[in-house]
Write a structure and sequence with these properties.
mainly alpha, 3-stranded antiparallel β-sheet, 12 strands, 6% strand, globular
Amino acid sequence: MLLAGHVIAICPMASKIITARTSRNDTYHQGYPQSADKRTASVGFDAASQYVSTTGVHAFVPPGSGDFRGPCPGLNAMANHGYIPHNGIATINEYVQGTYEVFGMSKDLALFLGVFGVLMDGDIPSLSFSIGKGGNSILGLLPQNGLTGSHNNYEGDVSPTRGDFFEYGNNHDVQMSQFVQLYNLQSNVSDPSQVNYDIDLLTSFRLSRFQQSIDKNPYFVNGPITGLLVQPAAYQFIFRFMANKSEEYSEGRLSRDVLKSFFSITGTEYDFVYTPGQERIPDNWYKRAIGDEYGLLSAILELTTIALAHPEFLSVGGNTGQVNTFAGADFANLTGGVFSASTLLEGNNLGCFVLQAAVMVLPTGVAGILEGVLDELAEVVNPLLQAWDCPKLTQMDIDRYTRRCGPKNGTAGLEALAAETSTRKEKVQDHEAEYSNTMQGLNPLLSYSRLQDMNEFWTTGTNAIGDEYGLYSAIPELTTIALAHPEFLFIGGR
């Protein structure tokens, strides 16, 4: 992909993801049959296969020094119970396996989210990302954003329980006022066995939170990815993954105690205590039924259904430096006329847009280790785009959006998204040819982006352009010095 003037355009690697492939389409349909939405069908319950262990190797262990926890309660709980590494840094495969074992998330959805996390905010050589702060690459080469540092490119405003970054200065801890607001939505239910924080209830809460962000966050952003895809997922996932399944409630029931456990809340409703990073999988807890995994198709169909009832959620835009100054972007201008506000909710257009837009912002112009991952992602995305006969999105004009909303200092809003996207893409793409020969002699996990990062780090503000001091300069020079002083080559010590 290329980013010129903040117009995101498709490159050959991204085209691979949104170009039809008959063989991959057949393979996908064998693994993920496109039947009617499974949530409308009868779902059985099998205690043995749906039980999620919280004992033995999966007993709760709170995070310690050097462990990372962040804005996603489900991932925090998985790390605390050893379903992903306890330090909070996991690979794409570990996320895919862990989310299936704990929640019954389908591989296609987990892969989509995992690839997005790695490419936008993770460590590309190791295909990993941190669920919390960055600066913790597995290979230790350069700092990464992590989910906590991913504001407005992965993590966004209007979270159910986490605060807007520019309202609280903190986007990873539970804001007790928001949790209490959610918790109290079932305060009128006197029988605890009838409490259920379901999709309808969570959608009403999202409406309230959306307005709260407009009212209280001067730099609120409802981005094309963070607002239209990630934001609804945050609400849908609470019920679809955290609701406890049983014979009586095969689709799940989310009780007060289960809600508190997943959000690291203890105490009574009049004396709540939040302990950051100590989210727990409840004891005697059961995930989604085998064969009823919640996947990419289910998530998109559900967010579309919700958007049909509440089209205000599709208002891409944001506040312009003061509260209650929401300015919307023209969708036709944003997408080069491919989609508009009037057509976005026609047919499968919303799904077509969010899938293609998410792919377009990925810095995918890199060869080597990412090839297989992107092939897998293509197997997930292509069949849906084909089945829906999607209009082809070829560019998004981010500039038209950034001129209207978000801070103007380049540290947040869509300006930050554009800058972050541009930087990561350039680091991945620039000088690939220059480094291609060098790569053959280095650890194959070292990507071109890392070499470019190191080149940029050492040359910024020092040598003249075109006179950068690099590997080709350093090795001949150290060889020349060693020829004059061979004692430097003695390996040993006292």
